[in-house]
TrEMBL record:
It comes from Rhodococcus kronopolitis. NCBIfam families: dat, ectoine_ectB, PRK09264.1. One of its GO terms (molecular function) is diaminobutyrate-2-oxoglutarate transaminase activity. It holds the Pfam family Aminotran_3. It comes from the Bacteria. Its cofactor is pyridoxal 5'-phosphate. This is Diaminobutyrate--2-oxoglutarate transaminase.
Length: 428
């Protein structure tokens, strides 16, 4: 019998902050990865249905992107450039315009606010307030927009908000689509309080929304709800910000998650997979007339990550010159949803939700979701929980995953769910 030694995590436990989280859920020390697989130092392989929380849409160490990066580094290309003009940035902007903006009829200016999603959101909120001269932002129940103070102020999770240590103001939460399970009509209340001078609601600068709330539990907004929201914002002179940090770059199928609704937001935030290779990079897109920044009014030391420009350009050229990836994501998404819907039909208290390759299996007992992820990890699958009480098993496999790999992961998940649910039934 082979004895499997526990990984040496001593230095992490001694020196790394208690704030670490994923390392607690997945007690392994990882060493290498490729495509949809990640390996620990003991040589065990895990199928990755997490993909860097959506930062690795094209998989680990994608060979096309890696080749472009290595060639660039070997040529002594610029690595750090602030907002200076560089060849790498020029090529990225030209490719982004050619492959993403122009085919969709979008005329956005591109701001590089810093390396992370919260940087993009902070810039969007600040810009909306500067343009409109108003301070309030409307956000939604279940929202997650980042961990810095401005982004936290429009985030719903109470635990994350409490970490700020100060009052989070100038934001007004509103119910996300289907928050009341269809018992209340959409937006009539919002429209009324906007127009009622006795409502106490100041006209907001902007509304910020995720079309699919990932951290909130894979809550999917209907296209008609998004269209109604866009129409309301337009008619009342309120800017619409779509946070596509996790759901952009093809996660739901099309490059932008809002394309399904046929809307054009005033401002869009992108990060995570826009860098292509997992390298830090973020964008804040805005309609040209909203670009009222003074030079240097919003900046950041690492807003010009040139290696990320290189891998981002390679990703846009490889995967977004035609519609093949978007079609593939929809097909694979149907495959995942069918498996989750089957589980929901077999066991009580489960429901399936999602769009494209962001899918979730919700449990009425949150402890079951955590148990499923633990069981799946032991069987060689990485998956995380999401939602206000971590009641949803959230699946974010790489968009480039093969159908065979997808089937393998779904089989592991199915066995994990069956094991946990049957154990619960036996205890009952």
């Amino acid at each position: 019998m082979t004895t499997v030694l526990a990984p040496d995590t001593t230095i992490f436990e001694q020196r790394e902050s208690e704030v670490r989280s994923y390392s607690r859920a997945w007690p392994a020390v990882f060493t290498r990865a490729r495509g949809s697989w990640i390996q620990d130092e003991a040589g065990r392989d895990y199928l990755d249905f997490f993909a860097g929380a959506g930062a690795l849409n094209y998989g680990h160490n994608n060979p096309v992107l890696k080749r472009a990066l290595l060639e660039y580094l070997d040529s002594d290309g610029i690595t750090h450039g602030l907002d200076m003009n560089t060849v790498a940035k020029r090529r990225f902007l030209e490719t982004f315009q050619r492959n993403i903006l122009a085919p969709r009829g979008l005329d956005y200016k591109v701001q590089f606010p810093g390396p992370t999603g919260t940087n993009a959101v902070e810039a969007a909120l600040k810009l909306a307030r500067k343009v409109t001269g108003r301070s309030s932002i409307v956000n939604f129940t279940g929202a997650f927009h980042g961990m810095t103070l401005g982004s936290l102020s429009v985030t719903g999770n109470s635990m994350k908000r409490a970490g700020a240590g100060i009052p989070l103001v100038h934001s007004t939460p509103m119910p996300f689509d289907n928050y009341f399970d269809g018992e209340m009509p959409d937006f009539h209340w919002f429209e009324r309080v906007l127009d009622d001078t006795g409502s106490g609601l100041n006209r907001p600068a902007a509304v910020i929304v995720e079309t699919v709330q990932g951290e909130g539990g894979v809550n999917v907004a209907r296209p008609e709800w998004l269209r109604a929201l866009a129409d309301l914002c337009s008619s009342r002179g309120i800017l619409l910000i779509v946070d596509d940090v996790q759901m952009g770059c093809g996660r739901t199928g099309p490059f932008f998650s809002f394309e399904v609704a046929g809307i054009t937001p005033d401002i869009v935030t992108l990060s995570k997979s826009i860098g292509g290779y997992g390298l830090p990079m973020a964008l804040t897109l805005m309609r040209p007339e909203l670009d009222v920044w003074a030079p240097g009014e919003h900046n950041g030391t690492f807003r010009g990550n040139n290696p990320a420009f290189v891998t981002a350009t390679a990703a846009l050229e490889q995967y977004w010159s035609d519609g093949m990836l978007a079609r593939s994501v929809r097909t694979k998404g149907d495959q995942v949803h069918a498996a989750l819907a089957d589980l929901a039909g077999r066991f009580d208290g489960l429901s399936a939700r999602g769009r494209g390759l962001v899918q979730g299996l919700a449990f009425t007992r949150p402890e079951q979701a955590a148990a499923v992820c633990r069981t799946a990890f032991d069987a060689g699958l990485l998956a995380e929980t999401a939602g206000p009480t971590d009641e949803v098993v959230k699946l974010l496999p790489p968009l480039t995953i093969s159908t065979d790999e997808l089937a393998l992961g779904l089989n592991i998940l199915t066995e994990a769910v069956a094991s946990v649910c049957r154990e619960q039934e036996q205890r009952a």
